Amino acid sequence: MKYLALRKGQAAVEYLIILAVVIIIALVVVGVLGGFPSLTRGVNEKESALYWQGAEIAIQKYYFTAATPLTGANSTLTLRNNKNFDVSLDLIGGLQMTKGDGTFINVTMACKTDSDCTGSPVSLSPGDSKSFVINYTNWITEFCINKGDSFSRKVNFYYRDTDGNPYSFVGTMPLVSTCQ
Fold it and tell me: In a 10 Å sphere around its CB, with 0-12 CB exposed, 13-18 middle and 19+ buried, how is residue 62 labelled?
């Protein structure tokens, strides 16, 4: 009788060991195939673009360049108001990006064309889009040094509604691109 109980116990232990091995192999396979993106890699350009399309102040299109002039004036952002009310965005202080050391700085923007806006702040109606160029003195020394460099920066927007109430949108995912 004692012998029969030992055989049943041994079978149960063998079953649990086999089950544990199968679970470990499955976790390794899922990890290798990218099933845990936060553990295996960073944010790619496509994921970043999808995230920023849905932000309160959406970044619809963006193009970052390492070419002169030093101010980054060839770098552009097309922004869209995804809120259900009009917003006013200051061209100086309305946009912040992280530098290489992780500190946030104000990045000045200018309207890409006169038809996009006149003066600052710029008003955006719900669903409205406007294009801007970057005007930051040390753009190619702090953001896009060389063509082909990876661009990955956290972005924050500060804006107001028509009553003057302040809002902020702090991006939880970086804006990712390649310097052109």
Answer: buried
pLDDT tens-digit profile of 109-129?
Answer: 888 877 767 777 889 999 999
Beta bridge partners of 122: 89
Within this chain, do residues 35 and 78 fall inside the same structural domain, yes or no?
no
Token pair listed for 117? 């806006």
pLDDT < 70 stretches in the chain = 1-8, 33-42, 67-73, 116, 140
Do residues 106 and 31 share a domain? no
Judged by phi (left if over 0) then psi (alpha if -120 to 50, else beta), residue 105 lies in beta
Q: Is 116 exposed, middle or buried (0-12, 13-18, 19+ CB in 10 A)?
A: middle
Total number of domains constituting the chain: 2
Q: Are 147 and 140 in contact (CB under 8 A)?
A: no
Residues 85 and 99 in one domain: yes
Is residue 113 located within the same domain as residue 148? yes
Indicate yes or no: pTM above 0.85: no
Residue 2 φ/ψ, nearest 5 degrees: -65, -40
pLDDT tens column, 79-107: 999 999 999 988 888 888 888 788 888 88
